[in-house]
Amino acid sequence: MTGATGNVGRHLVDLLLQAGEQVRAISRNPERAGLPGDVEVVRADMSRAEDLRPALKGVDRAFLFPAAGQAHGFLSEAAKAGLGHVVLLSALAVTMRQAGALGRVHAEHEQAVAGSGLPWTFLRPGAFMANDLRWAPGIRDDGVVRAPFAQAATAPVDERDIAAVAARMLLDDGHAGKAYELSGPASLTTAERVRILGEVLGRDLRLEELTPAQARAQMITHTPEVVVDSVLTLFASFVGRTADVSPAVRELTGGAPHTYADWATRNAAAFR
Ligand SMILES: NC(=O)c1ccc[n+]([C@@H]2O[C@H](COP(=O)([O-])OP(=O)(O)OC[C@H]3O[C@@H](n4cnc5c(N)ncnc54)[C@H](OP(=O)(O)O)[C@@H]3O)[C@@H](O)[C@H]2O)c1
């Protein structure tokens, strides 16, 4: 497992262990990984082939999160190790013309995986519900969410559902060569998510809509400019529309996707 300490990865680790699988995870900081004791945690950086070679030895299937755009090194080592299946965490952005650089980055990852000769499955989630954790400091401080595009709609997906689908892809046969678009159960605008979060927290939250320029100035402090610009263009295109809801989580896992209120309830402590 790559990305095992991430939003999706932690849930996937738990599901694989519950299924009785032997799990090896890479992390740049094993001592801080905080993964269950049954997981073999190997120190490895995706950009270093010399780390990946021993990490991939004896592995038969992998969950690939190409951190920092590092798919090629991983794939060439995975091909040498004879992996039987790679499940790639891609993004719905690959299907969206207006996604610009964001879509291209993920499309390049998909092409690299497809070109590796390894059997693959692509998971293409839309916006993660976990993205709203970035609202936590503002909510804790003064009950204000500062975000652009109040009326932009997405169908955000709970990271637990992405992990549940990834687990099925790794455990079951029959998904090689397939790409699945993943969403949550409902189209919600930013303003609707703030309202639901307030209901769950029992607080009156106020949405202070940032201009795209204000949002850009904040985002470029932690994200490459080219990605920020494509994210803002994409979200501008989501204003006034209803987001598509995919049936894939239910079809692939047999369970209903978690609602935003479920997610907010489970993560309420972060906002308090
Ligand atoms: N957020 C969204 O709305 C959204 C939507 C669609 C797709 N996606 C895609 O989903 C992915 C993010 O998934 P996530 O939220 O689960 O991840 P995350 O929480 O951001 O976690 C980052 C993970 O990457 C690992 N990592 C980072 N750099 C690394 C490196 N150089 N070598 C090895 N490991 C490295 C970290 O491991 P250590 O720190 O332990 O090394 C950690 O496990 C991205 O590819 C994103 O484009 C996101």
Automatic annotation (TrEMBL):
Domain NAD(P)-binding residues, every copy: 3-172
Record-linked Pfam families: NAD_binding_10
Signal peptide interval: none
UniProt name for this protein: Uncharacterized protein YbjT (DUF2867 family)
Source organism of the structure: Nonomuraea roseoviolacea subsp. carminata
